[in-house]
Amino acid sequence: MDGSFAEGDPAALCGKRQQFGSRFLSDPARVFHHNAWDNVEWSEEQAAEAERKVQENSTQRVCQEKQVDYEINANKYWNDFYKIHENGFFKDRHWLFTEFPELAPSQNHLKNLLSENKRSEVYEYYRSGEDGSDLIMEEQHSCSSVSLGDKTQPPLMEESVTQKLRHLEICTNEFPGSSATYRILEVGCGVGNTVFPILQTNNDPSLFVYCCDFSSTAVELVKTNSAYDPSRCFAFVHDLCDEDKSYPMPENSLDVIILIFVLSAIIPDKMQNAINRLSRLLKPGGIMLLRDYGRYDMAQLRFKKGQCLSENFYVRGDGTRVYFFTQDELDTLFTTAGLEKVQNLVDRRLQVNRGKQLTMYRVWIQCKYLKPLVSSTS
């Protein structure tokens, strides 16, 4: 369920771009010199106008009968979408390796630590910002960190937890990817625009990638892709909101979970339970990565009256739905699920169509949340 129709893939806009926050528009006269500008400040007037447009397009709500239809037949609407567009709508997201270096093959040292159960060091790796995320992280909690290169022993409690992690090894029957030491799950994989770049870029035999989507049509397109390798990847149909349907891997088995423009596609009342279940799949020290729509994104401002389902939740013309988040809303979802913030930032980007001399203000939110080594309830 690749939940973005106009996500503005940075790779398509700028080729291989630098990490978020690297290109600033200091001279408005140069706005059409590049295809995109980072961290664009909004004027008070622009922010007020955006709020006015949202209030205006939210006054008339979709009738309850249609809302029930969009929920019950959500898989039909997504299947119809992929039957029409197949794999020609979205571009491969090679920008993910810049924004989320956890997915890049250069993270060999991190993978080695994970495979050796040195998860306390991995935990400190993120908390100390050695992955480079501290360059763009929001305000972090003040705490002492142990770097990867530091020979100082971590606290005794973390040593004990690290030793006990071996007892968390999967004791169930064989499952897809059970022999791998580094496991990634993408939820809402669409036709594989994230999964295939990961597999093509990373030949590490210890890596195994899972991918699921609400749409059986999308999953079938993934499986019939020439790049699909069942020995390295497992694609399956899954409803993120179905609490009665289990995942094909056990709890505490995943190193990374990816949510790219997917959480926004489900009804807000079901988001917390979905994140709670995903959190349980992560190993201690594992991380959840998200990129999704932010409040007042251009796509939200373009909705017309009669397309609003509930506050900041809309239906598109083809029956698929989308929510527009704030940072606080996402922080609440992740922390309630027992995860700790590593990154939660707003990507305000000005996209430019130089041919038509058009400017488009996009708002996305990017998050990284870590599963602690010790549960807060322990």
Q: What's the quick description here?
A:
It is globular, with a radius of gyration of 21 Å. It has helices at residues 10-14, 44-57, 64-72, 74-85, 96-99, 108-115, 119-127, 156-164, 195-201, 216-223, 271-281, 298-301, 327-336; strands at 36-37, 182-187, 207-213, 233-237, 254-260, 282-293, 308-310, 313-315, 321-323, 340-353, 358-370.
Architecture overview:
It is a single chain. It is built from 13 helices and eleven strands. The chain is an alpha/beta fold. The protein has a single domain (34-105, 176-371), classed as Vaccinia Virus protein VP39 (Rossmann fold, 3-Layer(aba) Sandwich), CATH 3.40.50. The strands form two sheets. The chain has an eight-stranded mixed sheet with strand order 1-10-11-6-5-2-3-4. The chain has a three-stranded antiparallel sheet with strand order 7-8-9, with no helix packed on it. The two termini are 35 Å apart.
Element order: H for helix, E for strand:
HEHHHHHHHEHEHEEHEHEEEHEE
Q: In oligomeric terms, what are we looking at?
A: single chain
| CATH second-level architecture | 3-Layer(aba) Sandwich
For the record, the count of structural domains works out to 1
Radius of gyration: 21 Å
Strand count, sense and barrel status of the largest sheet are:
8 strands, mixed
Fraction of residues in helix: 25-40%
User: Which residues form runs of ≥5 with pLDDT under 50?
Assistant: 2-18, 132-171
Please, what is the CATH homologous superfamily?
A: Vaccinia Virus protein VP39
Termini separation (Å)?
Answer: 35 Å
